[in-house]
Structures are given as structure tokens and as C-alpha cells.
Specification:
By secondary structure, the chain is an alpha/beta fold. It is built from ten helices and 15 strands. Helix content is 32%, strand content 20%. The termini are far apart.
Length: 358
């Protein structure tokens, strides 16, 4: 049986809660389906208040995954059919794109930006949160999705550790933190529980958080990625239409090598690198103001030259940045004026300028 007939058979087996076959519903709920190798994207048309939004996507996903060729499924739920239908094609094994189309989730944001790093320990989550807050202070509507499944930091850094998101119409409601909307796997599991998941489970968890969360939309969605170039990065690149990526690094060579690898990964999946941020660039003595480059300095600028990406700015080592993260009171949520807050504001402005020029 060819792939098209397998999809037809799968859809014909799906019934609604009242027993009505999915394929007999008028108007049609299944608006489109695109198959790319082992990846299937299915577009559903359901009213905003439809109770089917809570149960039907998971039911369709489970049925479609029974098809031997398909390992990953993205369910896009829209209230009305899209105006442009060129991206929605019948399921077919011929003439399909080489990569999954990145149009499934977070379409209600003007810019979806991945904040990534080649290695851990460079302060990526600190930069993600404070950059989000800097953008919010400039009047933009901002959300932050913590996609670091193995080491979520956002609940602690926003002071929301142990808090569970509420649920409405079977969809998670993001937590509001200092004027931005946030959600993390850390808000759904005990912070002392180790997450021991293989790649497919990570993909499924990320997809479920994207699909089953009532993201409000707005100007910016920042995605705090896990370190490295693994499953989550690929999943996000396939499931979202990313505007671009911001790479965070520290100045020393060992970090910059990995930062360049992270940038190359995004380039290979056709996602623009918007720039590099150099974190922990130097230590500014709070008493005398002398700057000490503990981890070397200006390495990120040199890396930007190598990969032909913009340099977004440097952030100093500052005690209040660390304390703010540990205490759940990020420095950009306070009224403090310091070298670090000035740096975050400048990086936000540089990012906005790059997006406007692009």
C-alpha cells in the first residue's frame, strides 16, 4: 500500500467522541497534510472554542504514527483555513520537500528566535531571560519558552519553581513573569526528578508543549534551547518557523569553537544566525571599576568575523546578575542601573535593528 493510501486508511479509522468518523465531518476538519520522509505535518481547522482541540490532535498523532514510515508528527490547529494554500499539499511520497516545512507552531509571533549555545555553562538561560525582559521593557509583547528538557532553569530564575500552569480548554496557560509569558518543562515535573529520555521522547515533549499551550502571540518568542546541536535543536527547527538564532558564548577558545559549531548547525538547516553574544566578557570591580578579562576577551567578535555574523554585544560578570537568577529576581526585572543592564539593553536594541534591516 502506498503512503497516500496508508494516510487515507489512518484517517478513516479515527472517530470523534460521538462516534462520527472524522472523514465524514462537514466542513472538513483535516485541511492539509505534508509528508517529508519520516515527518508528517497535518493541518486541522477547528474553532477556538471547539472541545476537539483538546483531544483530537493527540488521537490523530497516535494513529498516524502507526504508519511504518512516519516517526514524527506535527499537528497544526487553525481557527480558519490559511489564505495561502501553497504550503499545504496532499500526502504523497513524490516531489516532497527535502526538509519538513517549518510552519507548524508559534505563527502568532512576529519573530521566533532560538537562543542557543554550543556548550553548557555559558549563561545561555540567563541571557535568554534578561534579553526577553529587555525587549519587554522596550514595549514589545514577549514570551519565553524553556526548551531545555534536561536542565530547565527558567522556573528558578523567574521565581516560579514548583508552580504548575493552569489549564483551560485542555490547553496549558503560560505563567506570567515580570510582564512576559513563560513556560518550561520544569513547571510540569518535580525539579528533583531526572529526565531520562531518548531523542523521540524529547521531540514528543517539545512538540506537546508547543501544540498544547495557549501561547498568546505577540512580537517576540524567545526559545531557550539546550546546549549543543542535538535532538531538541533539530525538532525546534522542524516544528517552528524560526526567524533566526542568537548564539551565546564565553570568550575562551573552547567555548567559541562550540559556538561556531552551533552556528553552522543552524546554517545547515537554513536558519539565519542573527548574531553572537559574549557573556562573562570581563569582571568589572564594583569598587574601583577596573575591568579584568577573566576568560580572555573579544573572542566572540573574532568568531563573528569567521562566520560572518553580527556581534550583538558583551555582558560583564556582575554579582547581581548571578544573585538575581538564583533568587528568582532577574536583574532586568529590577530598576538597577549597571554595566550588565546597559549591556542587555544594547543587545536588545542591536537585535531589533538587525531584524528591521533584514
Amino acid at each position: 500500500m502506498d503512503i497516500e493510501k496508508q494516510f487515507e486508511a489512518a484517517f478513516s479509522r479515527i472517530t470523534l467522541e460521538n462516534g462520527q468518523p472524522l472523514v465524514s465531518v462537514e466542513p472538513e476538519i483535516v485541511h492539509g497534510c505534508v509528508v517529508n520522509n519520516d515527518f508528517a505535518k497535518i493541518t486541522l481547522i477547528l474553532a477556538e472554542d471547539s472541545p476537539l482541540r483538546g483531544s483530537l490532535p493527540a488521537k490523530i498523532e497516535a494513529e498516524i504514527k502507526q504508519i511504518e514510515q512516519i516517526e514524527r508528527v506535527a499537528i497544526e490547529v487553525l481557527a480558519t483555513p490559511p489564505k495561502e494554500n501553497s504550503s499545504t499539499q496532499p500526502a504523497t511520497s513524490q516531489n516532497t520537500p527535502q526538509q519538513p516545512q517549518r510552519t507548524a507552531y508559534l505563527q502568532n509571533y512576529e519573530a521566533v528566535i532560538a537562543v542557543a549555545s554550543g556548550k553548557g555553562g555559558v549563561g545561555k538561560s540567563t541571557v535568554s531571560l534578561n534579553l526577553a525582559l529587555a525587549l519587554s521593557k522596550k514595549g514589545y509583547k514577549v514570551s519565553l519558552f524553556d526548551a531545555d528538557i534536561y536542565g530547565p532553569s527558567v522556573p528558578i530564575m523567574t521565581g516560579r519553581r514548583g508552580e504548575k500552569p493552569s489549564v483551560a480548554s485542555n490547553r496549558l496557560i503560560p505563567l506570567e513573569s515580570f510582564g512576559i509569558q513563560t513556560l518550561s518543562i520544569g513547571n510540569l515535573i518535580d525539579e528533583n526528578d531526572a529526565v531520562i529520555w531518548r531523542g523521540p521522547m524529547v521531540h514528543q515533549a517539545v512538540e506537546q508543549l508547543l501544540r498544547d499551550t495557549n501561547w498568546p502571540g505577540g512580537d517576540f518568542m524567545l526559545i531557550d534551547m539546550p546546549p549543543g546541536t542535538g535532538d531538541t535543536q533539530l525538532s525546534i527547527s522542524q516544528l517552528c518557523e524560526l526567524t533566526g538564532a542568537v548564539i551565546v558564548s564565553t570568550p575562551q577558545d573552547v567555548a567559541l569553537i562550540d559556538a561556531i559549531k552551533a552556528a553552522q548547525m543552524f546554517t545547515k538547516v537554513e536558519i539565519d544566525v542573527l548574531g553572537i553574544v559574549e557573556n562573562m566578557s570581563f569582571f568589572a570591580c564594583p569598587k574601583c571599576g577596573e575591568e579584568t578579562p577573566i576568560f580572555s576577551q573579544h573572542g566572540a567578535k573574532e568568531a563573528c568575523t569567521k562566520i560572518q555574523a553580527p556581534f550583538l554585544g558583551a555582558i560583564p560578570i556582575e554579582l547581581q546578575v548571578r544573585k538575581g537568577g538564583d533568587e528568582g529576581k532577574p536583574i532586568m526585572a529590577t530598576n538597577k542601573v549597571s554595566s550588565a543592564t546597559e549591556s542587555f539593553n544594547n543587545i536588545a536594541s542591536n537585535l531589533i535593528n538587525i531584524l528591521e534591516e533584514g
